[in-house]
From TrEMBL:
UniProt pathway annotation: Pyrimidine metabolism; UMP biosynthesis via salvage pathway; UMP from uracil: step 1/1
Source organism: Kwoniella newhampshirensis
One GO term of the biological process aspect: pyrimidine-containing compound salvage
Keyword check for Nucleotide-binding: yes
Tree of life domain: Eukaryota
InterPro entries: PRTase-like (IPR029057), PRTase_dom (IPR000836)
Key words of the record: Allosteric enzyme, Glycosyltransferase, GTP-binding, Nucleotide-binding, Transferase
Cofactor list: Mg(2+)
Domain Phosphoribosyltransferase: 32-225
Descriptive protein name: uracil phosphoribosyltransferase
Length: 225
């Protein structure tokens, strides 16, 4: 008796997620590898309560690739000189509460003693505009590169406000790296056109937003996952 033909979906090892021609120059999307697509499938599944830690780790690793380095020579244990590099300047993380706090552990995994600040933005009940409710940032943040953390980029309202807060604290726009799990095309456009010198790194660009400003297909409310 012949065994049943397995039903597998053979994704290309690395395909395309978005048409890169439509992305602003300062937006970068992780390569849509099979690993990334399977991790995203797990966290999007309404039947699972799995965390997004591994994707966050991929984002942080990619973010670190965009920091400047300076030449550094070391002597190896066999007495040879090695001309390497070391990161130039200090970094810190800033999470947009509350969802962004879920990305702090991934940053700490890569950068053990990294300073992490927090920003809480909520909608003003009278003006319906995003309003700053709380900010705790490192005193010397203006001297640092900032990895801004928020997993879901929908309209971009909170993110834009958070970036304004960073710039008000003296952070240079070009020293901001915004790390994000799932983005809407609208959110990317809003953030990247308003702040053309920052860099946005996302794991995936979804189709758009529904009437409640949820990302679709998305993963629902990140806080519930
Ligand atoms: N925040 C979420 O948690 N989910 C969305 O889809 C959009 C914003």
């Amino acid at each position: 008796m012949s065994s049943p033909t397995p039903t597998t979906t053979c994704l290309p090892a690395s395909g395309t997620n978005v048409n890169k021609a439509h992305l602003p120059e300062n937006a970068l999307v992780l390569a849509p590898t099979r690993q990334l697509q399977s991790l995203l499938t797990i966290i999007r599944d309404e039947k699972t309560q799995r965390t997004s830690d591994r994707i966050i780790r991929l984002l942080v690793e990619e973010g670190l690739n965009h920091l400047p380095v300076v030449p550094k020579k070391v002597i190896t244990p066999v007495g040879q000189e090695y001309e390497g590099v070391s990161f130039q300047g200090r970094i810190c993380g800033v999470s947009i509460m509350r969802a962004g706090e879920a990305m702090e552990a991934g940053l700490r995994d890569c950068c053990r003693s990294v300073r992490i600040g927090k920003i809480l933005i909520q909608r003003d009940e009278e003006t319906f505009q995003p309003k700053l409710f709380y900010a705790k940032l490192p005193d010397d943040i203006s001297q640092r590169f900032v990895l801004l953390l928020d997993p879901m980029l929908a309209t971009g309202g909170s993110c834009l406000k958070a970036i304004e807060v960073l710039i008000d604290h003296g952070v240079q726009e070009e020293k901001i790296l915004f790390l994000n799990l799932i983005a809407s095309p609208e959110g990317i456009k809003n953030v990247c056109t308003r702040f053309p010198k920052l860099r946005l790194i996302t794991a995936w660009v979804d189709e758009g937003l529904d009437s409640n400003s949820y990302i679709v297909p998305g993963l629902g409310d990140f806080g519930d996952r």
